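Data deposition worksheet. Section B asks for the primary sequence of the deposited chain exactly as it was used as input, without tags or linkers unless they were present during the calculation. Section C holds the resulting structure in token form. Section D is free text for depositor observations; keep each observation to a single sentence. Incomplete worksheets are returned to the depositor.
Section A, Depositor: J.P.
Section B:
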Amino acid sequence: MNLFRKTLFTGFAPNLQGEDVSIALSYIFCPWKWPQLQFGETPEKVEAWLKKFFQVRTAVTYDSGRTALAMALRALDAGRGCDVLVQAYTCVVVVNAIQITGAQPIFVDTKDHFFMDPVDAEKKITPRTKIMIIQHTFGITADMDRLMALAKKYRLRVIEDCAHTIGGAYRKKLLGTVGNVGIFSFGSDKIISCVRGGAAITNDTEAGERLLVLQKELPPMSKLYVFRHLLHFPIFFIGKPFYHLGVGKIILWLAKYTKLIPPVISDKEKGGEADPKFPTRFPNALGAIALSQLAKVNSINEHRKGIAQLYAMAFRQPIDNNCPYLRFPLIVPHPEQLRAHAKKNGILLGDWYDAVVTPCLKGCPHVGYITGTCPHAESDAKGSLNLPTDIHISTQDAKRIIECIQAYGI
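Section C:
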């Protein structure tokens, strides 16, 4: 144990700052604010911010990015008899959102390691295919020229999965505004994080009206669940700085073990079942934290770009200068061994995504993926490693990570 060397994290509340903790504590310990836990003006303020930032007609908030995706699919008439193209190398909640509507996910292989392959996508289009979900993995722009051309050719509706980005651009257009609907996540490890939250944006009048109707039909998040999400902020604020001493590790373990703070993805979701606590509306208290972070998104993004450039130069990787990297991805042999090596040196590297669809219980039989149908995605998952770019990673921290990885022989 090195008492003077802080632990570097990939994830673990990457955006957390004192202002977020102050907001969370004000809702936890001020009884006169408890009536505002669920309802208030901040969700509408977040929507107004999104409309102005993205220059769109409609922005609608929900409890999460996965709910925003499910509502976007419904707004675009996904349902039984409908196939939805989705890339392999993705999160299980994306597949769950498709299946909740009654539609069938059709897995498309990847190209350039992390993005939907237009050639394989075209092979898998049938008369049942109605919607394509384009995922900007790690915040890096997918092959929009060819994918949008494909969507136009076959008259497919397009949902941009921007869960990993807010502010990335393609041909001077912000990601999320190129397709019919863009969806965003404010989850615990995302560009903007209030632990639980999400939104959908669109310039499509009909889709926008449906998104608003679907939002109004949702119940509020329970006060208890809002409280538990708010506790995430003080717990991680105390736990992270002392993680390397063992004290912080115990604090975070106890919070997880006692279920004081909710899991990012529940066991029911990992098994393909609907979580009975969701979907819900975006709670006012979490909206206040999201709004605080959104005001700083440009500086957050510039920091991420700078750190990503250091990694790109060190590992001789191409870089998309138009996009802030949520995490900087690498494909390496035996990533689990490299993660173990880094952990011994106080660096917790990321494992998104270590399977074609993840995280899952019992191998994800419910998602319907057939082994061998997306060989490039399977190969990517076996070699996937990602590096942190968040505001808590300084230039010196990035150099420490680079030196650790290079010392291992990468």
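Section D:
The mean pLDDT is 95.
The CA atoms of residues 53 and 170 lie 15 Å apart.
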